[in-house]
Write a structure and sequence with these properties.
Layout: E1 2-6, H1 9-31, E2 34-38, H2 45-51, H3 57-61, E3 67-71, E4 73-75, H4 85-92, E5 104-105, H5 113-130, E6 141-144, E7 169-173, E8 180-184, H6 186-189, E9 194-199, H7 205-212, E10 228-234
Parallel strand pairs: 1-10, 2-3, 2-6, 3-5, 6-9, 9-10
Antiparallel strand pairs: 4-8, 7-8
The structure holds 6-phosphogluconic acid (6PG).
């Protein structure tokens, strides 16, 4: 686990845009495509906006046509709902960039949660099979956040979904709004090549301290056997 402290959240987002463009270029050069997992929440939205801005340097560096996007989690609401993670990424980034529509793998938040979970599992297994192995889908870059209770994606402390050791997707009921969600699980997230956590602001200080101290929280269990985990945080979120 590597920690990088930025002076401000703006610098942190700029650093994340660099990391995104670098991983995208590397993955496309090595494997012909790049698989990105996006998160919801407030923290990554300025990143999505920055990446999609043609006046900023990152837009032109990203091989958009070769990008595949999936979601770390989704709230069980329709795709045009203000709490939809798909909608957030669509509004801030996806409608402005030339990613082929068939490369946007959204979770059907409007469907009954059990069905949406099973469908997403099938969708990702098919994507994995196309790449040669139904049981392996290394995400090139997973952009994750952390909640004040240590959750990441929609993997919340003490939830039975933390024990999942086979399925890649679970539908869950969690202590957050909205409570019904679909989430990627550890068996998939821990196959990732790179995981980038973003956390900014004073309110995140305590939870980051607990993670740094090795507490067994969902976010701390993201530890891909063959990948790397990097935390980008701003100075407000640390005591540094
Ligand atoms: C979601 C997320 C969730 C988020 C954290 C941090 O759908 O809510 O994917 O895991 O990343 O709750 O959220 P903030 O960035 O808003 O602090």
């Amino acid at each position: 686990m590597r920690w990088v402290v930025f002076r401000s959240s703006e610098e942190m987002i700029g650093g994340a845009a660099d990391a995104f463009a670098r991983r995208a270029a590397e993955a496309c050069a090595d494997r012909g495509s790049c698989l990105i997992a996006l998160s919801g929440g407030a923290t990554p939205q300025p990143l999505y906006r920055l990446l999609a801005n043609p006046r900023e340097p990152w837009f032109g560096r990203i091989p958009w046509k070769k990008m595949h996007v999936l979601w770390a989690d989704e709230r069980c609401v329709p795709p045009d709902h203000e709490q939809s993670n798909y909608r957030a990424a669509y509004d801030t980034m996806l409608h402005r960039v030339p990613i082929p529509t068939e490369n946007v793998h959204r979770i059907r938040g409007e469907a009954p949660p059990g069905d949406a979970g099973v469908e997403y599992e099938q969708q990702l297994r098919s994507l994995a099979a196309l790449r040669g192995d139904r049981n392996r889908l290394p995400i090139d870059l997973a952009i994750l956040g952390v909640g004040l209770d240590g959750h990441t994606a929609s993997l919340f402390p003490n939830h039975p979904a933390l024990l999942e050791d086979r399925r890649w997707i679970r539908d869950v009921t969690v202590p957050a709004r909205p409570p019904r969600r679909i989430t990627l699980t550890f068996p998939l997230l821990n196959q990732a090549n790179h995981v980038l956590f973003l956390a900014a602001g004073r309110t995140k200080r305590e939870i980051l301290e607990r993670i740094r101290n090795g507490e067994d929280l969902p976010a701390a269990r993201i530890a891909p056997a063959q990948g790397e985990v990097t935390w980008y945080v701003d100075s407000e979120a640390t005591n540094a």
